[in-house]
Each structure stands twice: as structure tokens, then as C-alpha cells.
Amino acid sequence: MKKEKKLHKQHKKLSNAIAYAILTVISIIWLFPFVCLIFQSFRSYKTEFGGMVNYLVPKQFSLDSYTFLLNGESNFLRWYGNTLIIAVFVAIGQTIFVLCVSYALSRMRFKMRKALMNLWLVLGMFPGFLTMICLYFLLKQFGLTQAGSVPGLILISVASSGMGYYVCKGYFDTIPKSLDEAARIDGASRAKIFIGMIVPLSKPIIIYTALVAFMAPWCDYVFASYVALGYEKGYNVAVALQRWVWTSDYQGYFTRFCAGGILVAVPVTALFMALQKYYVEGVTGGAVKG
Q1: For the chain, which end, N or C, has fewer CB atoms within 10 Å of the first or last residue's CB respectively?
Q2: E strand or H helix at 89, and its extent?
Q3: Can you give the pTM of this predicted structure?
């Protein structure tokens, strides 16, 4: 009996060692591009010939690329500001819309409710870029392209956000309806119940919804480039940095491109590190059958 237990422990240790070794290798492979990006961002084009090198660690660390981005020599701060404005307003707008729609679908019963949910589910299966041409000409009619690309992108991102109710509605379904019924008996309105009771109990799903909404415009390239359409001051960082690697001076802008990538990753990484607990709770809490 003792021998079997000993063999079992040895087998478990060996299995764990193999699993950890595989996970370590995967982590190294996954992190390697990010490490390269960081090192390249500290390399100076003036002293190390831009992208024409065959080594990873810079021979001489330099902040030239970050200085170029932050001292006004480029429009990077404007592009960064555009992206931040879009992401913040979209996060706020989408969170409000999703919460309201999810609460209505979770708590209220009305005709065609299930048909509406099924319709939104089917429409959500189609990729958004199928409507890019129609949306572009619609925005153009209202002057929301090129110089007006920032409000245009905010409007498009927020307008259809209610269709992404699935996870949030699942979370609301886990909150007992008896709370609503008790509040209704005491004379509370639907709005008061939602704002005073449901919202305070839904912190994880609110944070999850806001993070997802923030990430989409922060990483958007395809539609953002289409709406800005060559108007440089209307770019977000994804479009602007991509234009840099298309320029004829690719070697000169490569290290600046890497530095820009690091600065773009900082706020998203900080948000996820700070709110990771609530993000996981929101996903798991909403992953129920509604």
C-alpha cells in the first residue's frame, strides 16, 4: 500500500514537472515578441542604423524614440489622445446601453422578447466589416468622417452595443428576482430598482463590460483607417503606427514604431492588472444559461 502511494506521488510529481515545463516553454514563446519590442524601442536609429541590425539587446540604450514621440516632433500625442477619447466614451456609452438592455431582457416579459433576442443573436454572427461601406457613406452624410472621425467612431461603436447583452444578461439572471419584487411592493420604480439595487450588486459585470468596450476601439485598425481616410489628425494610434511602417523611411521609424507600441500597451495592461479579479468574476458570473 505504501509502495503504491509512493509511486502515485512520484507519478504526480513527474506529471506536474512535465506540465510546468510545457507551460514555461509556451510562456517564453508567447512573451518573446514583447521582449523584442521593448528592447528595440530603446535602440537609437542614429547610432544603430534603425532596423538593420542582427542582435536583440541594444549595444547602447537610448530614449530617442520616446523623446520623438512625446516632445511634439510628431502627431503621436494627438493620435494617442484621439484613441483615449474614443475608448473612454465608447466604454461609458456601451456599458450604459448594455446594462439597460440586459436588465430589460432579464427582468421584463413582453411580446416578441425571445424573437428579438434570437434576431440579435443571429445578427451578431455576421462580422461588422460587412457594413463598413454603408456606415462610411452614412457617416459622410453627417460630416463624421476624416475631420469628424473621432465622434463618428464613437457613434458607430455605441449605436449597436445593446446587441452584446449575452454575458451581462446571464449575470443579471443570477441575481434573485425576489429582490425586485420586494422593492416593487415597497413602491420602488423600475429605474430605482435598477440604479439602487441591481447596479451595486453588479460590479464585476460592469467592469467586464467596460473593459471589453474599452479594448475594441483601442485596438481598432480596419474601420478607423476607413473613416479617417487619409486625414492624419483624425488617426488613432493603430492607424498612425501602421502608416509609419509603410513609409519610405521604414528603418528610421522602426524603433519609433516599437516605442509607440509600448506606450499603447501600457494603459491596457495596467487596467487588466488592476481589474483582473473583477474581469474573471464577470465572465464566470455571466456564463450561465439565461
Answers
A1: N
A2: helix 76-107
A3: 0.82
